Amino acid sequence: MDSKYYLLSIQRHYSDCWKSRPTEHKWTKGPVHELPPGFEVLRFSPTKSRNMWTYATCGMSMPTDGERLEIHIFSHEKHNFLIELLTIIAHYHRRSAALGLGHTVNFGQGWWPDSACGYGLFSLPYLDGPSLEWLDLKGAMTRFLWLIPITKDEVEYKKQNGLDALEEQFDHAQFNYLDPHRKSVV
Fold it and tell me: How many domains does the chain divide into?
């Protein structure tokens, strides 16, 4: 499969699911030359049906990868740090350790200034369901996961009790995934 076709298919998949067209962004600092050609972060503006900003990778995976993965994160405000963050995570995924469902990453700083959410959890795309989670291109599947900002205590809770237990705590607390200043649910 041609990589240009693959990247266009990823972008179209997001657009079809979220009923919106993105703007394309490339982070230019650091070892971005080590990412696949064409890698970018897509930013989707809020719409009537989705009152949040959405940032999504496009090209974190390539058609030749055994397991293909793309990720997205939601935000209550437009924030260029999220373009940098997703670029860094894509680089880590491609050059250091393959990431997937249930994994966590350290952001190296708060999601927003003064935010205790300095980590990210790779979760199922619960807000969008299976229509977003999988893209089938001629039998080759690409998975789309939600990167949820979480606290250090929530990372430790997941390590001790598992992903399902942490997600149950999210449900029980009815946590606001858009609030960068939310308290830990554990």
Answer: 1
Answer whether residue 182 is part of any domain: no
Is there a domain that residue 129 lies in? yes
pTM: 0.96
List the domain range (segments joined by +) for residue 63.
3-151
The two structure tokens encoding residue 97: 């350790």
Residue 179 lies in a domain: no
pLDDT digits (tens, 9 = 90+) for 120-168: 999 999 999 899 999 999 888 999 999 999 999 999 999 999 999 999 9
Tokens 């200034």, residue located: 113
The β-bridge partners of 120 are: 105, 149
C-alpha to C-alpha distance for 61 and 46, rounded to whole angstroms: 26
Two tokens at 182?
């939310």
Task: Give the containing element (helix H, strand E) for 13.
Answer: helix 3-18
175 within domain boundaries:
no
Neighbours of 109 (CB within 10 A): 11
Q: Estimate the crossing angle of helix 152-161 against helix 163-173, to 10 degrees.
A: 130
CB distance 62 to 6 below 8 Å: yes
Tell me which DSSP letter residue 80 carries: T
C-alpha to C-alpha distance for 184 and 116, rounded to whole angstroms: 8
